[in-house]
Each structure stands twice: as C-alpha cells, then as structure tokens.
Amino acid sequence: MAYRVGMVWDSAFLQHDAGEGHPERAERLVAIREALIEEGMWERFVQVPTREATREELLRCHTAEHIDQVMAARGRSHVSFDPDTHASLGTVPAALRAAGGSMDLARAVWRREVERGMALVRPPGHHAERDKAMGFCFLGNVALAARALMAEEGATRVMIVDWDVHHGNGTQHILEDDPRVLFVSLHQYPFYPGTGALEEVGVGRAKGHTVNLPLPMGMSDHDYRLLFQSWIVPIAEQFEPEMILISAGYDAHRRDPLAMMRLSTGGFASMAYDLCAVAERLCGGRIAAFLEGGYDLEGLSSSVVATLRVFLGDDVDLSGEPQLAGAASRAVLEASKALLAVYGFKG
Length: 347
Prior knowledge:
Helix content is 38%, strand content 14%. The protein is an alpha/beta fold. The longest helix is centred in the N-terminal third of the chain and has 20 residues, at 91-110.
C-alpha cells in the first residue's frame, strides 16, 4: 500500500553554521536531499511549508529566559551557548523554522492531511532543555510537536521513540511529568549527555511513562530488534497511543564517527517498519519522524532513504546484519521489564 508522506525541508536550515569542522553541518541535509533525488523519491513527498514558531508555542516547552537568550543571538555572527553549541547569523531563523515546521507536520498527520511525515530539520532538538541550549540543539522540536498536539488537537496519548545514539535528555525532562506522553529512548550508555539511566522512569503522575534502555557500545541490528519486538511494541500496545513521534537520529549507524554502535541501514528500516506497523494498528496510521543526529553522510543519507521508503510503503530489505542479539541487550530488556512492571507495564 502506498502512503502520502509529508516532508518538511527548507533551505533556511542550511544557513545554520555551527562552526568550521563541526559535525552538525549543512552537508547533512544536502546529502539526504541528493540521495532522495537520485532514488527518484523527492517528488513523491507532500511538502509541508515551514514558518517560525511563535513565542506562545515555545513557552509550552521552554522558559521565557531561554527563549530570550536564543532570540538575542538573532543577527549575530557568532554566539556560543556551550562548547558544542554555537549560533551564527542563520541559526535563529533556522531553529524557529525547524520548530514551527515540526509542529505543523505533526498537525498535518494528526488531521490526516498526510498519512505519515518526516521533518528533515536542523538544528536538531532533543538535547535542548527547558532552560538551555546544549548538544547542538536550541529548541525541542519533538517536545514542541507533542505539546502542540495536546494543546491544539486534543491528543491525550502521544508516544515518542528516540532512537538517536545519544539520550534525548531535553525531550525527557520537558515531558517527564506529563502522563499523556510515553517517552522511550534507546541510547549508548554511559555516553553524552550522561542521562538516561534505567531508573529514570518519569515524575509524579507520569512515573512509568519514561522508558530508558541504556545500552553498551557495539549493539547490533538484532539487539535493537530484540528490544523493539520484545518490549517497545508491547509497551506501545498497552499505552495505546493516538500518534507516534520518532526522534530519528542516525548516529547509531556503524559508520558514524561520534558513537560506537553497529546498526546498519537495514536496522533503521526495521525499527521504522515496526513503529509504522504499531501506528497502523493503534493510531489510525499516524506517525511522524524528526531528524536528530547522524554524522557520516553515507550512513545518514542511506538510512533516511530507507526510513522514508518504509513510510512510503515501498518494499525494503529489513534483514540487517546477521549478528544475533547478545547477552547485554537481553540483560537491559529484563531489567527494564522488572522495573516498569511496578508501574503496570508488562512485556
């Protein structure tokens, strides 16, 4: 079956310059777009226009002081927020359009203007905290999309799956006290930013709605597949989300220079396939992905192409690499099941 897939892409995203030699560079989006054109896929997407997020929208996830700090960088050639996170003349317009486009894509999928969607945005967002920029991120694109759905569309159960190799600390901390959100993160651990321990399960009424799967380096396609099929899919079925949002980072790819995982392009396609199948069963098909990390241009572009082929309904090789899931991922799986059973989730 073929699906209508919404796409967020804007040349403004190319104007954000994080500095010479920085891994989060405009060439990432250029490589993705060129790969999609080469594969004959670019014209198959429904382009969702971008716009700058409003202050009122940003206040759903960020403090006024943080928004002021980001806006103060507008028109300045260089501002450092931390040793890894730098703004240039094009950064604030890009960040505001990434946030606005992400929210509008989520709304378009919710309203069935398109059936699925992907926001190819930069700067990324999942490390941005309520009150600070960090980890290449200024504004929480996925968190803002979730809050827009809840504030404007009446959503009551939104599932966020973060498969970036780094823990989505910003998304977690912004939403960890909201029982309407189920946040699941698979990430290398211990690793930047140092958060995402198994015991971080949410706050207050939302305890049990944060699911962290901290993984040692070297995990393969089959380790991730074990966690998806034996735990993430069953959790989704118990939560019964109305829409699934993916923080789609591709830095767990075996080619990526910033991490030490062993996912292949087929491994990312398999995760996308599993989540699309869940969306079809539980969400009326509603699913959208938002670009986070991924810094090897070949690994990134091929994996985004594979993800979008799954979204479009094309035939995709899901076999991945032949390694079997190991003891480490099984141990994380069993520990998470035991911990989350206290809050009512059962694998």
